[in-house]
Amino acid sequence: MSTQTLITVDPSTLLVDLNIREAALDAAFVENIRANGVIQRPVVHKTDGGLRVVMGHRRPLAAVEVGHRRCMPSSPRLRRTPSA
Fold first, then answer.
1. Distance of CA 67 to the CA centre of its chain
2. What is the pLDDT of residue 84?
3. Do the beta carbons of residue 22 and residue 58 sit within 8 Å?
4. If you write DSSP's letter for every residue of 15-64 in order, what string do you get?
5. pLDDT (0 to 100) of residue 1
6. CB 47 within 8 A of CB 14
């Protein structure tokens, strides 16, 4: 069963790798994040190096650009179900 854990972090602490497409931040996208914050949570996985963004790379980048210090990524975790 898959569950999601919601946490609040400083978006500047998230590890953001290069995405398949270029993570260009256009002015309209950045302004939307400035006005509304990060509404669609980026998805992260916990690694030895920290929380790594696996979906939604541009959102924390834009949040950092506009000075937001709080972001609530979701972290899917696979929970083992006992064998019957």
1. 15
2. 44
3. no
4. B-PPPSS-----HHHHHHHHHH---SPPEEEEETTEEEEEE-THHHHHHH
5. 52
6. no
| Distance of alpha carbon 58 from alpha carbon 77, whole angstroms | 22
43-56 pLDDT, tens per residue?
A: 888 888 888 888 88
Question: In the structure encoding, which two tokens stand for residue 46, read together?
Answer: 């916990």
CATH number listed for the domain at residues 2-78: 3.90.1530.10
Amino acid in the structure at residue 83? S
User: What does the block give as tokens for 23?
Assistant: 């993570």
Strand partners, 2: 78
Can you give the residue ranges of every domain in the chain?
Answer: 2-78
Q: Alpha-carbon distance 77 to 45, whole Å? A: 8
